[in-house]
């Protein structure tokens, strides 16, 4: 039985990291895809090999310069934070035009599964043949009884009346996944949540968990960097809140 839940990342030598998880084969493919299609700095893949535990893989990759943005964020002034948002927007715009060879499927490279914190952080999610299939899965996660109550019905109706396009997405744009060096972003890491998703997924994922203060400084930065999908955010927030 595969040990899906465990992910380890170790610095094994100067400039080298070894990551082990169920998702490392897919993450290696993603890193190569990003390097091919964009100017976004990402770790360079040196090797991907099967792990000793069933279902796991080892990803050997280079180190990016700097520190986690999480460590520096509280020390930046407003102008520096604006520069971070501007730089991130350029990168995300590049990411979103990477074409999918899989039509309308929601999946990682290789038409593979992905990590989804909103679905099941202990086991792989997907792939899905369509956005509709993916949305139904999300709804079942939060509403196992399939009971859509009146407060939920309208946000879901409005959001799902639109047919989203498929865009390549990182899926977890938080300060702990962004590198910062010498006053600017120096790269993006941890791509196991990435793949081709509905166009709103980057925006709504950046707000997860939905209980967080949407007026905090990081969410304001994200608001400058990403295209907004307020109806989809309201629908997903309503689904999440329905559990409580």
UniProtKB/TrEMBL annotation:
Residues 19-227 form the Aminoglycoside phosphotransferase domain. It comes from the Eukaryota. InterPro entries: AGP_Transferase, Aminoglycoside_PTrfase, Kinase-like_dom_sf. Pfam families: APH (PF01636). This is Aminoglycoside phosphotransferase domain-containing protein. It comes from Hypsizygus marmoreus.
């Amino acid at each position: 039985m595969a040990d899906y839940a465990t992910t380890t990342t170790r610095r094994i030598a100067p400039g080298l990291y070894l990551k082990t998880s169920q998702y490392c084969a897919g993450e290696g493919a993603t890193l190569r895809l990003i390097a091919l299609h964009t100017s976004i700095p990402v770790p360079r893949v040196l090797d991907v090999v099967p792990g000793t535990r069933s279902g796991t893989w080892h990803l050997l990759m280079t180190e990016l310069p700097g520190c986690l943005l999480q460590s520096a964020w509280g020390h930046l002034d407003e102008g520096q934070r604006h520069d971070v948002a501007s730089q991130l927007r350029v990168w995300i715009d590049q990411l979103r035009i990477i074409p999918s060879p899989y039509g309308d499927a929601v999946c990682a490279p290789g038409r593979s599964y992905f990590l989804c914190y909103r679905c099941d952080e202990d086991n792989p999610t997907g792939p899905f043949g369509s956005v509709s299939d993916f949305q139904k899965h999300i709804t079942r996660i939060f509403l196992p009884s399939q009971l859509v109550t009146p407060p939920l019905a309208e946000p879901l109706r409005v959001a799902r009346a639109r047919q989203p396009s498929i865009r390549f997405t990182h899926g977890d744009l938080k300060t702990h996944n962004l590198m910062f060096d010498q006053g600017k972003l120096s790269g993006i890491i941890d791509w196991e949540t990435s793949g081709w998703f509905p166009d709103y997924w980057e925006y709504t994922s950046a707000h997860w968990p939905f209980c967080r203060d949407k007026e905090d400084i990081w969410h304001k930065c994200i608001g400058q960097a990403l295209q907004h999908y307020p109806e989809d955010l309201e629908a997903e927030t309503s689904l999440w809140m329905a559990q409580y």
